[in-house]
What does this fold into?
Amino acid sequence: MIIVITIIHVIVSIGLILVVLLQQGKGAEVGAVFGGSSSTIFGSSGAGNFLTKMTTGMAIVFMMTSLTLGYFAGHRPSATIFDNRTPAAPSTKTENAPSNAQGPAATASPPGTEPQKSTTP
It folds into this structure.
């Protein structure tokens, strides 16, 4: 469903850009450069009403698809690495233990290797 709305959104946005660029400006008559306004595709007076209605309709569809895509983006469950995190295990070190004591992880060595011997007295 989101893919269909996204495709409609892209098509409407491209169409909206084209319709806005086709409209005649209110300033200097740029349409006269291309042979005057009477020789346009829509005729001398039909372009204003047709393009205005087309722009309004496309703008409404564009806003509806934008709001819909924004709603779906905000309510999409996202998976993160923090979902599978386990709480840290409590510390096993006690206050009475000597500071040079090594736990079982320190005495275990990978298979095929010998533990190093200390040379300090």
